[in-house]
Amino acid sequence: MNRIIIAATFWALISCNPQSEDGNKLDPLLESISQEPDGLVGFGVAMVNSDSVLYKKGFGYANIQDSLPYTTTTTQNVASISKTFIGVGLMKAQEEGLLSLDDPVNQYLDFEVINPNFPDEEITIRHLATHTSSIRDNEFYGKKSYVLKDSSLVASELLGVSFQNSAVHNMEDYLRAVLTPNGTLFTKDSYLNRAPGEQFEYSNIGATLAALIIEKASSIPFDQYCKKYIFDALGMKNSGWSFEQISLENHSRLYESSRHEIPLYSLITYPDGGLLTSINDLAFYLKELIRGYHGKGQLLNHESYKELFKPQLTNNHFIHSDNPDLNEGIFISMDEHHMIGHSGRDPGVSTYMHFDSTKDIGYIVFTNTEMDEISYDQYQRIINTIRIKNQ
Q: What is the pTM (predicted TM-score) of this model?
């Protein structure tokens, strides 16, 4: 499942000047969307500025069978929004002198990562963080990285993804298997026929490799590194990278577009899309990103935030892109409408987290339903509603 940003089709809608919304005006509009038939089962939204939460609410159901409402404390995986935490982690590690973005990745690994088409060209951490490493998600990404929580369930294919009933590899073993020529999951499509640094190619595998480098450089597992330097610092008490780190009582069920329940799953490559969090907790994080952009952040120093948000690419990197006006910071995306953030998609999940860099305002949307024509239209209208209503 490719978690490339799914909000691009409606970024053209968001160049307007948003203003603070009266919840009494938003509530009926969003409630009306939630009550439409055959669409989203549940969703949550938030609007924040650098100081406070302007609006937050859940709609629909986190669990249809038990009639549990979707609330702002409901947790779920947020897909590729997770990658922004790798970016913040890299900048923190660089501040601590543990690594430099321009270091070769092989300086930190116990196995060699080399594009066999360009064996003399080094892949750097910055290449990973800007999706220019030449590493691709080969066919095994969707076949071997998703693992069912309930190991008694039979492995199955659903929504284009093969769910495994046991984790054959841990994260490092999986990366070694995919990225080294003798690896059991290696294919000729594991790398582009382009040198590192030449082409933007969105890579979940590359993102996970960056998280592993944080582990190696810090001698702290990536999930614990995030807890120490991000979750605890921001008061994100209901966030984690595994089911053991959160309360399952608050976890949303996920649904196909037919409203059939999808079994709970995790990812071997968990840093690229496996963050479990809530609207409430992610609002703390988005407020911090807005503060950091304006030179007032607490997680990183001013220079680190400048690097995090600095456009790293040129149009030449987007060789096959339909959106040449997009750009990348350090695991964070931006566009010509001054929107900075990330969106994501996984089975039963679509998410959105962006802020307007010219305004002191940001937006979050979580959904717990697989996208089809109806639910995608609803998803677009939710974002459009919280962005430009009563401007």
A: 0.93
